[in-house]
From TrEMBL:
Cofactor: FMN
The protein's name in its UniProt record: FMN-dependent alpha-hydroxy acid dehydrogenase
Sorted UniProt keywords: Flavoprotein, FMN, Oxidoreductase
Keyword Oxidoreductase among record annotations: yes
Family per similarity comment: Belongs to the FMN-dependent alpha-hydroxy acid dehydrogenase family.
GO molecular function terms noted in the UniProt entry: FMN binding; L-lactate dehydrogenase (NAD+) activity
Gene3D superfamilies: Aldolase class I
Residues where glyoxylate binds: 23, 129, 163, 274, 277
BP GO annotations: aerobic respiration
Length: 372
């Protein structure tokens, strides 16, 4: 029975070749940061109130003028097409069904226009990695034309984290199947058949969200995460100019960086350590959240991700000042385990758990959680 995120994780492990599961599940160095993300959530408690009217529960929040049915969204994750062909379209459609936003990674296997077309009525945000500024500029313009509502600049990958499982598995981009990878794929006939049936398998089709498809040097730059490390606060202005909508920074943890973000006209922050995939020595995101919230002083919304595994974790993040959270791996486990139905099931699990937590806390609206 698949009842929680960990159940879906175990099922995903069975459903995927090892190099794919390890890519999703893995973290940097010793996995200490990934572990802290969950341990610090577990160590937090919520103080319930009793005898309050919870006969009606309202989980909606409004973000940049748009209603979300529940206070969580889909975090941007690269190479979702490795899990299932068209993974990003499946995630985007599920998010639209659930009335929550989907963030598309720069490292998507699908052109951003195709993902938008898969759920034209949904809320979609575009995540940006800046490798080459002209390419970033083109992605931004395409995202604007396609109708993405917000731009998320990820700032915690100046260099790729040290993912030793990927190294051991010989998993790198551009994708070159090693004998070990070929063996792992072949021993998963369902995964291999699905990829084969999809025409050009997604892993052979790394398009950088559709940008310059086929440019091997670009693919190599992306996957080696050869970021433009000369991008600093003072040069952020060019992005601000080319994107008129909400511009968010994802992957900061320091309250002083939060203050600088407000000063530089950023519209929202996602406190995150990339699910423990970057700096293994980083604090958990939930630990870093309160100082960032204090530094921002309500001027822009603060979101968080990294380690959210239960509806009660969402309540804890909101109690500590988050507007909403983003889910990373749990939705990928759902996608791996059962495709579209699996994503729906994981989203429902988080919503149901949040509602139950709210009732147990005596909170009938999301705003009531701030006092928990
Ligand atoms: C990520 N993440 C990520 N973030 C980003 O800004 N761009 C990206 O391309 C990716 N790619 C990516 C791939 C995979 C497989 C994972 C697991 C994560 C980070 C992601 O947006 C988010 O910060 C974390 O996943 C949150 O942590 P949890 O919920 O997975 O613990």
């Amino acid at each position: 029975m698949l009842l929680n995120a960990e159940d879906f994780r175990c099922q995903a492990r069975r459903a995927l070749p090892r190099f794919v599961f390890d890519y999703i599940d893995g973290a940097a160095d010793d996995g200490a940061c990934r572990q802290r993300n969950q341990a610090d959530f577990a160590a937090l408690t919520l103080l319930p109130r009793v005898l309050r009217d919870t006969s009606q529960i309202d989980t909606t929040v409004t973000v940049f003028g748009s209603p979300w049915s529940v206070p969580f969204g889909v975090a941007p994750t690269g190479l979702n097409g490795l899990i299932r062909p068209g993974g990003d379209a499946l995630l985007a459609a599920a998010a639209a069904r659930a009335g929550i936003p989907f963030a598309l990674s720069t490292a998507s296997n699908m052109p951003l226009e195709a993902v938008r077309a898969a759920a034209p009525e949904g809320l979609q945000w575009m995540q940006l990695y800046v490798m080459h500024r002209e390419m970033a500029e083109r992605i931004v313009q395409r995202a604007r034309r396609a109708g993405y509502q917000a731009l998320v600049l990820t700032v915690d990958v100046p260099v790729s984290g040290n993912r030793e499982l990927d190294l051991r598995n010989g998993f790198r981009m551009p994708f070159k199947p090693t004998p070990q990878i070929a063996w792992e794929a072949l021993t998963h006939p369902r995964w291999s058949l699905r990829m084969a049936r999809s025409g050009t398998p997604d892993f052979a089709n790394l398009t950088v969200a559709g940008e310059d498809a086929g440019s091997a040097s670009l693919q190599a730059a992306l996957m080696a995460r050869a970021m433009d490390r000369s991008l600093v606060w003072e040069t952020l202005g060019w992005l601000r100019k080319s994107w008129p909508g909400p511009l968010l920074l994802k992957g900061l943890l320091h309250p002083e960086d939060a203050r600088l973000a407000v000063e530089h006209g950023i519209d929202g922050l996602i406190v995150s350590n990339h699910g423990g995939r970057q700096l293994d020595a980083a604090p958990s995101a939930i630990h870093a959240l309160p100082a960032v919230v204090a530094s921002v002083q309500g001027r822009i919304p603060v979101f968080m991700d990294s380690g959210v595994r239960r509806g009660s974790d969402i309540a804890k993040a909101i109690a500590l000042g988050a507007k909403a959270v983003f889910l990373g791996r749990p939705l990928l486990y759902g996608l791996a385990a059962q495709g579209a139905a699996g994503i729906d099931a994981v989203m429902k699990q988080f919503s149901d758990e949040l509602v139950r937590t709210m009732i147990l806390l005596g909170a009938s609206r999301i705003a009531d959680l701030s006092a928990a």
